Amino acid sequence: MDSLTLPNQAGPAARGTGQRDLTVSAAASLRRHDPELDGLLEQEFRRQQDTLAMVAYASLADPSVLACGASVLANVTAEGYPGARYHPGCRWLDQVEELAVRRTRAVFGARYANVQPHSCSQANLSVLFALMRPGDTVLGLALDAGGHLTHGAPASVVGDYFHAVGYGVGEDGRIDYGQLRRLAHRYRPKVVIAGASAYPRALDYERFRAVADEVGAYLLADISHIAGLVAAGVHPSPIDLAHITTLSTYKQLGGPRGGLILSGAECDTPGPDGVRTLAQLMQRAVFPRSQGTLNAAGIAAKARALALVARPEFRDLAERIVGDARALAEELTRRGHRVLTGGTDTHMVLVDTTPLGLSGAAAERALEECGILANRNRIPNDTRSPRITSGLRFGTNILAQRGLGPQDMGECADLVHQVLTATEPAGGAGHRLDPVVRDRVRRAVHRLCRRHPLPGYTAEPAA
Ligand SMILES: *Cc1c(COP(=O)(O)O)cnc(C)c1O
């Protein structure tokens, strides 16, 4: 028997100093010994409770996910993979990482999963630097059309090291697949990226794959924003169509900060060197090529979040997220707002603020004054800078998590509408909001938030 496993000794654990008691006593200790920091965390808790977060880029982590992030695994330093570490003391971490990998593969129906990326940006960089050489061409959705920095924007290292070509959207705001194909034939990319940060419609992964195949490119699907919908089966899955899929674990999975790299049917396909498979390449792409030590507590938190995603309740949540977004788009349209593409297939609703005479920045700030969060976002053919913009991006992940359904979206749209129609531009990103409307909406937001508290965050302390 392993000498490290001592059976049930009546030692420290019996005196209540095990990992389980740590989180509770640690919170009390922080409160007692660092009231300044503790006070800030408490304020942040209240802000989250009393703010109507109508944002697309976040979800709430279940408190059990937060507990994993604050666990003793945070003390573990390790490089490498389970069974092949470069540090001692990884016995339990190995099992946690294997659990996270198993759960990830099961949730997404993937054959390969890497749970170590510190973020989706990091995941994308790892993938692109594994599949391409500096100077090779990557074809991704242009930033202005809703793409992500790491899909080839000049401001990203991707735009610096690779020849980045961007496809865009047509007059109707939807991806111009004809242009995608023409650009692919003209520039012969090594990698085509299907994915977006600000695009409300489902992606046609079969079309993307057909284009990639025509020019011999690898297809990378970045489902950062829609990972929850994909996991729940309410958005088409790219796992077996793309060569590689990447995602963030916090945006829609209720997980910790972090990323994942997945591969399905193509995981044994040879990489560009013709020797290693894509799965083998991805293992090296993360460690040692682009990351050092892993985030052990974060990997535990990913494992916990994926267990929650695997439950049938998560599918109900995903359906509510999409139902809410459709209803929100309709209710905003009914009040005269210009919703891009005329609606949504996802959790995201994009609104052009130009008809209101407002920049995205002014609209964002006016809403925040009233306790409503939605972020400024560039829209196709935007004439304003990325800091100012002409659009607002809404999302329904957190509304749905708080239990708000499609029948509540009229109320949410109405609050937004009241604020935006009582706001005037005041030079640059400045704005002036009618104080009477502001106070009325603030109170209404507060009441709505109290009726729909953050789920799991308000449990009475155990007696
Ligand atoms: C947010 C986002 C990322 C980056 O994710 P991080 O985890 O914040 O690095 C990558 N791709 C897309 C499409 C995104 O929307």
Automatic annotation (TrEMBL):
Residues the record lists as binding (6S)-5,6,7,8-tetrahydrofolate: 143, 147-149
Known function: Catalyzes the reversible interconversion of serine and glycine with tetrahydrofolate (THF) serving as the one-carbon carrier. This reaction serves as the major source of one-carbon groups required for the biosynthesis of purines, thymidylate, methionine, and other important biomolecules.
Positions bearing N6-(pyridoxal phosphate)lysine: 251
Organism annotation: Streptomyces cinerochromogenes
Gene3D superfamilies xref list: Aspartate Aminotransferase, domain 1, Type I PLP-dependent aspartate aminotransferase-like (Major domain)
Molecular function via GO: glycine hydroxymethyltransferase activity
Any one Pfam family match given in the protein's UniProt record, by short name: SHMT
Pathway terms, separated by semicolons: One-carbon metabolism; tetrahydrofolate interconversion
Domain Serine hydroxymethyltransferase-like: 31-415
Reactions the enzyme catalyzes: (6R)-5,10-methylene-5,6,7,8-tetrahydrofolate + glycine + H2O = (6S)-5,6,7,8-tetrahydrofolate + L-serine
Stated name of the protein: Probable serine hydroxymethyltransferase
Localization per Swiss-Prot or TrEMBL: Cytoplasm
Cofactor(s), by name: pyridoxal 5'-phosphate
InterPro entries registered for this protein in UniProt: PyrdxlP-dep_Trfase, PyrdxlP-dep_Trfase_major, PyrdxlP-dep_Trfase_small, Ser_HO-MeTrfase, Ser_HO-MeTrfase-like, SHMT-like_dom
CDD domains, sorted: SHMT
Family per similarity comment: Belongs to the SHMT family.
Keyword list, A-Z: Cytoplasm, One-carbon metabolism, Pyridoxal phosphate, Transferase
Subunit structure: Homodimer.
Residue span of region Disordered: 1-20
Organism classification: Bacteria, Bacillati, Actinomycetota, Actinomycetes, Kitasatosporales
EC assignment: 2.1.2.1
